[in-house]
Amino acid sequence: MKTLKIAIQKSGRLNEKSVELLKNCGLNFENYKSSLISPVSNFPLEILFLRDDDIPEYVQDGIADLGIVGENVIQETEVKVSYLQRLGFGKCSLKIAIPNHSDISSLAGLNGKAIATTYPVILKKYLVGHKIESDIRTISGSVEISPGLGLSDAICDLVSTGGTLKSNGLKAFADVMNSEAVLIGREGSENDDLIQELIQRIQSVLRAKE
Ligand code: PRT
Ligand code: ZN
Fold it and tell me: What are the transmembrane regions (predicted)?
């Protein structure tokens, strides 16, 4: 019998909820922080623990059959995968934010301005869709401090509570996308019996939570 592989985040904001969801589906596995792969004893499944950024490509390329990852990561990596189920956790929005005292007052005001982000692909599409030409500055983290350092006029970053924006003297200005954790598979994989069985277990866990 074949064994499926599901990729989940090794550590970070989605790790705990992903593990909890799989355990609630009745799957038995060890969750050692040191292991990168964990077999499930009562279902033909192995769990791969990965950086979230790698999950969409692993699923697209067939190294994993399934993955749990934020929609923001999928959109940014531009892979071709099937969305099998929204999971209701890891909710956040990708927003453009500006300093509290910025003189930018409309979307058009972003023309010619520098926007710092770790999401250049999604931001570019949004700006093109709104016919705005900004200078996208791709950085790898700590985006919120870049206006204060004089590196950008605005930022585009994930927001959940808004606390980080506030403590850096920034305010939300435009919504680029909403995101939550989703279960993904290869295109067409929804027709696989074993994958269907897992999706059904996940759906009953989600229904029980409503
Ligand atoms: O190590 P690895 O690469 O796997 O993890 P990571 O550091 O890239 O990601 P991680 O663990 O920070 O986030 C994983 C996923 O959680 C993201 O891809 C989103 O889908 C989701 N998520 C939900 C968030 C947030 N909420 C969130 N608030 N990801 C990041 N943030 C950050 C945001 O970037 C900002 O710095 O939290 C800060 C803002 O939070 P608030 O509450 O102050 O608004
Ligand atoms: Zn990451």
Answer: none
